[in-house]
Design brief:
Radius of gyration: 20 Å
Largest sheet: 7 strands, antiparallel
Shape: globular
């Protein structure tokens, strides 16, 4: 995120695309609304928009020069009903506090996770939006960069997937992909490091990640990136995997090309549709060049068999596109992300077979998704 002083912004589009950069055809794109929210003399950012389960929206933000996690409720037109902030100040030398994910649980309570300070301690809190009170908060004692949050369907507890630093240090040591189980009524947690079931090698000299997880028919599906050697991250492989409710890995898929070839790819997001997995990856499958990125869209069966894989090279308009999320729309899929270095946002629309219909750049002057 650009660290110049600016107000965070919230963008809603019926069909995304504000620039004239496009691929293949010129489908119409109309803006629903654009709102600027925040203090002009502070560095603030919006991180996520979520279904409030009552016809409205929740949005998570970092406000006040990133020193507060703020969440707010708004209607579908962007009108704010209320806003609440939380300050934990775990690290006084770096008080930045950033939300990672939010869910509305089966009791209608808000559960939010985030990251505190440069040492990436994890924070999680539960909030009652009716009583307007915080129920509990929990600081993860290990250095953990949280990515997402799921509520278990059987016991009502929460599972968060994270990138854990090990051993604890502020100097960017190696990291492990980890699962953290959070107890519903207390916020107590159990850290469950993932082992060799989804890793090519189990040494701890380079980092591995879980980027996204979903719960489908009582089974977890996830994606991320894992290393294949301990010399650099230039051989990171995209990984898609399935785990049971005891967090035992049932299968994993790693990489679209051979283990011995040089590539640098991360799997960033996935979802389940019609009992098939749709996953988006980003990176370079032909070299260890971390400055050149392609976008890959892939479909799997629920038993981990690849159905098809699409590689998008959209030319000079998208030379460094880092895909971050993929969603389903009635007539296809929408991929969105940002350009490396935060020089703008992009959106790619495909049909249900993964063929590109159009793509757009949105030059925001330095923004990340």
């Amino acid at each position: 995120m650009n660290h110049l002083k600016f107000a965070f912004w919230l963008l809603f589009l019926t069909v995304l695309g504000l620039s004239q950069s496009l691929a293949q055809n010129s489908a119409p794109c109309n803006e629903s609304f654009l709102k600027i929210i925040g203090a002009p003399d502070k560095s603030e950012a919006a991180y996520g928009v979520y279904d409030s389960k009552d016809g409205n929206l929740y949005m998570t933000t970092s406000t006040g020069d990133y020193d507060s996690i703020t969440f707010m409720k708004m209607d579908l037109h962007g009108n704010i009903f209320w806003s609440r902030s939380r300050n934990y100040y775990f690290n006084v030398s770096d008080p930045s506090e950033k939300p990672s994910d939010l869910i509305v649980d089966n009791q209608g309570r808000i559960v939010c996770i985030g990251t505190l300070g440069d040492d990436r301690r994890g924070i999680m809190f539960k909030y009652d939006p009716i009583a307007q009170t915080q129920i509990w908060s929990s600081t993860l004692i290990l250095s953990t960069h949280s990515h997402g949050l799921i509520q278990d369907t059987i016991d009502g507890n929460y599972t968060t997937y994270a990138r854990q630093r090990e051993p604890y240090s502020v100097f960017w040591p190696a990291t492990h992909a980890s699962i953290v189980k959070i107890i519903n009524n207390s916020g107590a947690f159990v850290l469950l490091p993932l082992g060799s079931g989804i890793r090519y090698q189990s040494d701890s000299t380079i980092s591995d990640h879980i980027r996204s997880m979903v719960l489908h028919n009582g089974v977890y599906y996830g994606c991320g990136a894992m290393p294949v050697e301990n010399t650099s991250n230039a051989r990171m492989r995209p990984v898609v995997f399935r785990m049971n409710l005891d967090y035992d890995v049932e299968w994993s898929w790693m990489g679209a090309i051979g283990i011995d070839s040089v590539q640098h790819i991360y799997s960033e997001d996935l979802f389940i549709e019609n009992d098939e997995i749709i996953a988006v990856h980003t990176g370079d499958d032909g070299s260890a060049n971390t400055d050149r990125s392609y976008v890959f869209l892939q479909k799997f069966s629920l038993d981990g068999q690849s159905i098809w894989l699409k590689k998008f090279d959209l030319g000079s308009e998208f030379p460094d596109a880092l895909a971050k999320e993929v969603i389903s729309v009635p007539d296809g899929f929408m991929i969105y992300g940002h350009r490396r270095g935060g020089s703008g946002l992009f959106f790619i629309k495909t049909d249900k077979s993964g063929n590109v219909l159009w793509a757009r750049n949105l030059d925001t002057g330095g923004s990340f998704l």
